[in-house]
Amino acid sequence: MVKNLPLFPTTVVGSWPRPPWLVRAFDDYGKKRGSKKKLTSHMDDAVKLALKDQEIAGIDIVSDGEQRRFSFLVVIAEKVAGFELMNIIDLARGRTHVLSTIEEMMLPKSVPQPIATGKIRRNRPIALDELKFARRHTDRRIKVPLPSPYMLAWQAWDYEYSRKVYPSPDDLAEDLVRVVRDEIIALRNAGASFIQLDDPTIQNPLNPEKYMKFLTMLLGHKPRPFKEELNWAVELINESVKGIGGVTLGLHVCRGNWPAPEEILPKGAYGPILPSLLEIKVNQLVLEFATPRAGPIDVFKDYPTDKQLGLGVIDVKNRDVETPEIVVSRVKRALKYFDPDQIFLNPDCGFASGRTWPVADRQTALRKLRSMVEAAKTLREAKS
Ligand SMILES: [Zn+2]
Prior knowledge:
By secondary structure, the chain is of the alpha/beta class. Helix content is 40%, strand content 14%. It has helices spanning 20-30, 36-57, 75-79, 88-92, 98-104, 128-137, 149-155, 169-189, 211-219, 226-241, 274-279, 324-334, 362-383, and strands at 61-62, 81-87, 112-121, 141-147, 194-198, 248-253, 284-287, 308-314, 343-347. Helix 12 packs across helix 13. It is globular and about 60 Å long.
């Protein structure tokens, strides 16, 4: 657990807008116009910049901004053996209605999908190098986000390419749990303060006609009935964190974060999935509440909990920068259901879940973090 933090600690969900020169360096490397050494040097610089931005803003628990990752999901295939990265448009071809759904949902195109085509093996760490580098460049506590095994079981099993090795998503999930669990332990042992499992997929049962339908069409899954689906999610995540102490463990749940208009993105209050989220044995739920798509925080009225709440107080997709007063008012709503020492302040999600689809520019993101930190100061002063 993270100790000796101020009241209302401030943190981020993970990703930070990548500088244009980093995006270019990745492109050049992909087109064999740049060396690995040059790309690594750009990634190192971008991480230092992301850390410095968060320090300047006054964030208590920082991340490396996920600068080295293509996305919060694809990182698994970048590091773990047994995956192939398949272009989502190529995968969609010949599969009924998938291409039209990608258009309708305005999903980022040319995105690689991490598909399990071989035996999944963590033959090297996933985020340990990220943590070690960040540790050398900041004195702040560090949060490391990882993809949740439940999200991966949905995203990485394909009926055409995975079945030879893993007859069903359940079979794949066993290995995913092991991989994620081993990484959590390695990160804990290396001094991570906060390890966060990202899982936008767990809210899909709220929106069966949106992203879940898309994944079903794309990858050939058979969704389970509502409660059974959630029980599966709880079981996989709990297996991956079982008995692990000495670090704050969080679960981040949002409704997707790509630059499509609000009316296209999934929405729905947490209410129906909240009992399941509370069964998950993490210290903190990191939830979006600034976007109206997440519904009101009053869903906690019927579910008092001892867990910490990573309260989303910044709408990452809204270009307007929240004033500290707005942030304070959002925290006050949460104080109806949580004690002050249960609440952490964070934006709803990362500012750039994927390298090529930031939802905010860096300057706007920085101003939003500053507002959040100002609000935390006001709230602390009111309590002292
Ligand atoms: Zn998110």
